[in-house]
Design brief:
Shape: globular
Largest sheet: 8 strands, mixed
Strand order of the largest sheet: 1-8-7-4-5-6-2-3
GO molecular function, one term: oxidoreductase activity
Organism: Aestuariibaculum sediminum
CATH architecture of the largest domain: 3-Layer(aba) Sandwich
Helix content: 55-70%
Keywords: Redox-active center
Protein name: TlpA family protein disulfide reductase
InterPro entries: AhpC/TSA, Thioredoxin-like_sf, Thioredoxin_CS, Thioredoxin_domain, Thioredoxin_ResA/DsbE_sf, TPR-like_helical_dom_sf
Length: about 475
Amino acid sequence: MKKIHLILGLSGLILVGCSSVKKASEITQEQLNQLNTEEASKTIKLLLKSKDEGDYKKVVAYYSSKKNKEKVTEVKDDAVDKFPNGYYASLRATSVMNAETNPEEKVRLLDDMKKRFPSKYMNSAYYSMVRFQVDNGNLNEAIGYQQAMEESNVFRYLALDVISGEAAKSDIDLDITDLLESELSKYNKNKETWGNQAWNKDNQIFKRVKYNLAIAQFQQGNKAEAVNIIHELKSMSSDAFGSQNLNYATMLAKCEVYEEAVPVLEQAVIKGRPRTDTKYYLQKAYEAKGKSNFKVYYNGLMKEMNEDILSHVKEIVINEPAPKFVIKDVNGNEVTNKDLKGKTLVIDFWATWCGPCKASFPGMQAAANKFKDDESVMFLFVHTFEKSKNALEEAINYLKDNNYDFDLYMDYRNAETRSNQAAAAFEVRGIPTKVVIDPSGNLRFKVVGFKGGKDSMVAELSAMIDMAKGNQI
């Protein structure tokens, strides 16, 4: 009799345990994140007994929200062991495949993954393989992997963006117009399921691929189709003179639709943000009207640009004592503001991880070259907000690899204050930030960000330097 009661008791405990796990599984991510530490700990213990990997995802998200990297790693490791054919195991297998550089071994690893994981976990791996094949010039192979992805998964269309972008800038004889049209139709059927994520706002993927379709049509000699696509894209744009519309105008110019293209191309020059081929197509359009003296016409546009920039520079000029700062040269020697007094200084705060910083460098190089023979002007490229212990080496290598002839300085983070002294002194909140200091040690200009124009950057810095040298207000 006692034995029967014991068995019944154990059964009851098991049922209670199963019920508790089931109840814990019903908790939402928001509810879990809002629990106090004790209640969260109890719930997490139950979630980690679940047979549903989705409950492990909740725990990972919880620890991520608490910035507990150790626990995140621990739970992911447990999930890989418990669900060898699951989500986290697929991510780990994808990482292994990504690290493999041998093409044949990479393909073998992917084939093993296809046998091991369901299709819903393969999209990221296929996307990685698409990028690998594109980087190695194998567009046909890349298309094959893109086609293997689920139609409802956004990675399929991100992969299409990569493929079509590469085809647009390549000279290869590959007609992808039918592919792009078919895939864009599938994109429109599925886009509503992806939500309002940042990358999905304003149909960004659609617009890029659609533009690449216009290029593909042009490459195949189908100018009328290319023009129709550009007109469709223009109708979706709210910024008549934005960077996208400059691309559209350039395509229209290639198709000899000059009347529509020229106003946008002209504004690109006046705003100091032309493409490398903008001048060429303006000249084609100018001469198509039977006009001569293009140089006079183009110089007039450049004059407008300089006048606009000078007016803007006069509006943002300041005149206050520059803060004291200490930076180090590449040899570790300290350099202070006192050491540099008497010169007009252009200080560019940047970092190797900063995309806009690096995008601004062609313009900064042009500006530095313009003043390289002027000993009264000094450009200092100050690396700050480092994210690596090898920041100096990485900065040197980046400049060398990209042929930038810059005077590099380092603004290291102070271990005690956890701040970068020079950046803090100038109240730098984001990079790139450029400051101009006059020979008397006064801060005259502070500019944050990069708007994407090489010509305008050179003109703007030139105006700032000239005003600083003359100590004008």
